[in-house]
Amino acid sequence: MSSNSLSAAEWRDQKRALWPLGAVIVLLPLLGVALWSTFGGAAWLWLPMVILYGLIPLMDRLVGEDTANPPESAITQLAQDGYYRWALFAAIPTYLFTWVTMGWFVASTELPWYGWLGATLSAGLVCGLAINIGHELGHQPSKLEQTLAKFVLAPGAYGHFFVEHNRGHHVRVATPEDPASSRFGESFYAFFPRCVAGSIQSGWVLEKQRLARQGKSVWHWQNHNLQTWAMTAVIWGVMVAWLGWVVLPFMLVAAVFGGSLLEVVNYLEHYGLKRERKDDGSYERCQPHHSWNSNHTVTNVLLYHLQRHSDHHANPTRSYQTLRNFDGVPSLPSGYAAMIVVAYIPPLWFRLMNPRVIAQHGGDMRKANIKPSIKEQVIAKYSAQTA
After folding, report:
1. Which residues lie below 8 Å from residue 309, measured CB to CB, with a gap of 6+?
2. Which of 79, 250, 258, 310 could bond to 156 as cystine, CB 3.0-4.6 Å?
3. Is 180 helix (H, G, I), strand (E, B) or coil?
4. 10 Å Cβ neighbour count for 222?
């Protein structure tokens, strides 16, 4: 019996008990510290990285996919169930506790360079997970969630994401104008700086335009970018006042690595996909085939269904627990955790993903979002093959 054939009373969320794991996983750096303290050996401080890049992809492979959807009759009740809201809220204090504790640990402990790096990158890993928490909160309409979104983005210094993602990326997704949509033939290492610079600029312009419509300066205190950046300055200032300047490199490196994790996910979510232009020059509405999706259960639980990306773009305010799988949408060969590793190795990424992009467009690469420097060459090559 399919999920959609069940009534709301009959249907049960099979992953309901698992959602709090999103709050637990941000504690992993502290487990590394505990094992280092117990057994010695700075290698323990790399434990979260081993889990991210090794264990979770393996578990995705072993556990497999979950394609079940809640029946439409259950959506309203599911969206209003406070359990899911608090499962998400629980990740905020655990993230902040981990980030502060790791800052204290690296600032007050004599470590070999590789131990410092392992501890700092592990903290950066949870900064990346926190940006995803801020992503989910930032899409909710309530003032509380939006304020919490800004707060959770602040330690990782990624406050511009609150503005640019919701009002920039979601408007321009899968178009050449979107800095957060990766292009066919573009490596992650080319995409990352282009995306960050373009997103910060976009977030600033969006706020400047919004405030101008209200007759206010871009430097007004109601500028959401300035609010989140001020939060970062205060939090980082408190850490420096408490632990000294020695903690500053920790915060900088963790922030850069956390941001890179968010952007490598952006990289694989829309690679090579493009919305078509209409006769009036505007783009068609974003549709399910403009996002790469995955139903791998483990990563979906840890990232609050972020991999059901088509439904997220179709319904940006839909809560994570209600996001649905669509049949026939572009699908990644594995979950995000494994695909992040692949994206770090451009030849492997191109070999794995380029044929999928070409197939998605039926060989007509005029429909693809292509890196400008190779666009004509790619279109000519595949036009000749399909003629």
Report:
1. 269, 291, 292, 293
2. 258
3. coil
4. 12
